[in-house]
Amino acid sequence: MRAMRLPAWPVKAGFGPGAATWVLLQQVCVRGLVAVKFLVIGRILGPSAIGLASVALLAVAIAEALSDTGLAQAVIQGPVPPTRDQTGAVWTTLATRGLLIALLLVACAPLMDAQFHLGGALALVQIAALLPLLRGLASPAYFIAQRERHFQHIAALEISAGAIDCIIGIGLALAGMGPYSLLIGMMIGEAFKSVLTWTTLAPRPPIRLRWSGIGHYVGFSRWIWASSVIILITNQFDKVVVGKLLGPTQLGAWQMSSKLAQMLLADAALAMSQYLFPTFAAHHRGGAHAAARLFRLYLGVAALGLAAVVILLRFAAEPLFSIVLGAAWLPAVPLFRIFVINMAISALNSVLASYLRAVGDARAVTVASLIQVGALIVSVPPATHFYGVTGIAWSMTFGLATGAAWMLWRVSRHGAAHAPAETVE
After folding, report:
1. Between the CA of residue 352 and those of 179, 261, 270, 404, what are the distances in Å?
2. Do residues 365 and 221 touch, judged by C-beta distance below 8 A?
3. Structural contact between residues 7 and 286, judged by C-beta atoms closer than 8 angstroms
4. Within a 10 A sphere around the Cβ of 381, how many other Cβ atoms?
5. CB contact at 8 A, 180 and 168
């Protein structure tokens, strides 16, 4: 069998269907639209309304992480693309999961109201319940497009859906819909994206219930599920604590500072991982040495760029909040200065996780998340006692750093294991 040959330079220049240019364009447009929507709505509604919407989105995040199948990543990483019948089984599994999550969230709405002080706004959680259902109904052809690195098509889908979400969300906020505007915009954007996956991508899976034929994905996807559950704990526990103990207004301030830092730092790496994961996997199928060389290049560039951005944002934090969000949000500035460090480490972790999963070591990412949980368990109580809410934020920094250290060690071990074989060749 002839070995796969890939270009020595990892990024395709120009505007070919598989060029990294489309991933970068998608990042700029989609995250820019999200930033505009979130910041405009935040300025219109204030911390309390944002906090209410955040509780509903928190419920969705918890339910989706606890039920993550890992099938999308397994389809992208697998040595061969799925057959049409296998895509039908993937769709059946994901659609059923989305329906069950939606029903669970509707049933748990009264509990969320009681625990997070929603003031009877049960409809917020009920509207948010439609998000996982709409995502589950999307065609698995989207994952195949990612696998085959059809980034031009993916960018068109994501930008179109993001534009609809932004326009409708801001319009509803201006019309006086309050926190519902944020959720309804997201819901309509997800519905539009799901429709596009069926009408513009191939192959279309058969629309019938089918459960068999995807057992070979389980070995890989189980680690994705485990990692999702652990990441849920590390990423959402702070919001649960703040929302339950301090109420929606304080949660809104916490969420805005975190979200702004995420948009400026971590979202770029998360979007880039959509390019890196299938690209690392393709290079690894052609030879472990090529994938390792590509990884080192991206990690070095990311580390240097993130360090510069963190320094800039910490100095510019107060005028940034004052100009963009208004005086009501200034108490969130100290948290933002910590969160930019957190999100920079998280961005590096995205690169590390993309590589480890691409070479088949999804277990290492899960273990890294477990280590992060352990670090949080050890550090949060004393940090909270001495430094309050900022102590929780610094504990998150410590946890993220320990997870990154573990993944770096696993990458070095993986490189050492493959070095002799590459030398012999």
Report:
1. 36, 20, 11, 8
2. no
3. no
4. 12
5. no
> In angstroms, rounded to a whole number, what is the distance separating the alpha carbons of residues 401 and 368?
10
Cα separations in angstroms, 126 against 60, 103, 239, 375: 10, 9, 19, 35
Angle between the N-to-C axes of helices 267-286 and 151-174, in degrees from 0 to 180, rounded to the nearest 10: 160
> Read out DSSP for 183-196?
HHHHHHHHHHHHHH
The pLDDT profile of the chain, 425 residues, written as one tens digit per residue, is 333 344 444 444 466 777 777 877 887 888 788 888 888 888 888 777 777 777 778 778 777 776 667 777 778 877 778 888 888 888 888 888 889 888 888 888 787 777 766 665 677 888 888 888 898 899 988 988 888 888 888 999 999 999 999 999 999 999 988 888 988 999 999 999 999 999 998 888 887 777 777 766 766 666 677 667 776 776 676 777 666 666 666 677 777 888 788 777 777 677 677 677 777 877 777 666 777 788 888 888 888 988 999 999 999 988 888 888 877 788 788 889 999 999 999 889 888 888 888 887 778 888 888 898 888 888 888 887 788 778 888 988 999 999 999 999 988 876 655 554 443 33
Determine the Cα–Cα distance for residues 410 and 369; give it in Å rounded to an integer: 13
- Give the 3-state secondary structure percentages of the chain, helix then strand then coil, rounded to 5: 85, 0, 15
Using DSSP, state whether 131 is helix, strand or coil. helix
Domain residue spans of the chain:
15-213, 220-418
What is the spatial distance between Cα 206 and Cα 188, in angstroms, rounded to a whole number?
Answer: 25
CB 84 within 8 A of CB 206: yes
Q: How far from 266 is each of 154, 246, 348, CA to CA, in Å?
A: 20, 26, 8
Helical ranges in 149-217 per DSSP H: 151-174, 180-200
Residue 154 sits at φ, ψ, to 5 deg, of: -60, -40
Asked whether the whole model's pTM tops 0.70, one would answer no
Could you list the beta-strand ranges (E) of 23-141. Answer: none
